[in-house]
Amino acid sequence: MLAPDMDVIQMIFLALVQGVTEFLPVSSSAHLILPAYFTDWPDQGLAFDVAVHLGSLLAVMAYFRSTLTDLTISAWAGVTQRQFDANCQLILKVGVATLPTVVAGVLLKDMVATELRSIGVIATTTIVFGALLWVADRRTSYAVSNERDISWPIAIAIGLAQAIALIPGTSRSGITITAAMLLAVAPTAAARFSFLLSLPTIAGAALLTGLDVADAGLDARWLDLFWGLVLSAVAAYITIGFFLRLLDRTGMTPYVIYRLALGAVLASLALGVF
Q: Residue 213: inside a domain, yes or no?
């Protein structure tokens, strides 16, 4: 449910943070833990979490609307006319790459929700996977320049890497892009595959959380949920566009530096420095 005393500033801040960080390789969970240490905000509640994740989902669907249209047309042709093209293969690869996260999510849900949400864990994963992203970014040549050319073994490897993102602080987009780049997929193709892979992943997570909300009973301020969804969607849409347009020019170095700095702050909090 939505915290009844959640104010407008908190709603706006959390919606924007979710929208911006969902698709950048910087970890949304690492950012969402900080307000708990520096403010007296109440927990935003499961209903709000569902709303902002649905906003992110709508953003990636809107941004890749042309690609999704092509994939849908190909899927229909594949079913009705048995025409199995590169788009159909891409759909199946995204589906298969999603399975490890589904299995890990079911098996490890309780442990992730309790034992792995400590600030120490998040600080560690933010730094470690930031450093791994830096290693991946050191490549100077790539064998795959289009997401449709990603092979089955690479797609499965990216899917296995995505399952690691269940550990808070890892970053779903960060670990999938890192894995793809380490396997010689060009950064833009890696990012596009990662964003397409986010569709079933975010949808599934939102569905499971929504079921938890339904079990607990929904006592929410619908206007706050609506604006949380809208703000998250707008922020995510703008972020995806900027990220893809700047990727070839900036590489991953700015995100690596940011992750290491953020990880240092979180580690300081975990050690009681602040």
A: yes
Q: pLDDT per residue over 192-218, tens digit each?
A: 999 999 999 999 888 877 776 666 665
Name the token pair of 97.
């790459």
Domain extent for 164: 8-270
Closest CA to 17 of 230, 227, 196, 236: 236
Cβ-proximal residues to 109 (8 Å cutoff; 6+ apart), any chain: none
- Separation of alpha carbons 168 and 179, rounded Å: 17
Q: How far is CA 150 from CA 132, 155, 185, 194, in A?
A: 21, 6, 7, 12
Per-residue model confidence (pLDDT) at position 99: 95
Residue 149 lies in a domain: yes
Which residues, in sequence order, are CB contacts of 127 under 8 Å at separation 6+?
Answer: 259, 260, 263, 264, 267
Query: How many structural domains comprise the chain?
Result: 1
> What is d(CA 194, CA 23) in angstroms, rounded to the nearest whole number?
9
The β-bridge partners of 236 are none
Hey, CA dihedral for 128, 129, 134, 136, is it positive or negative?
positive
Identify the segments of the chain with pLDDT beneath 70: 1-6, 113, 212-220, 274
For the question of whether the overall pTM of this predicted structure is more than 0.85, the answer is yes
Q: Is residue 23 part of a domain?
A: yes
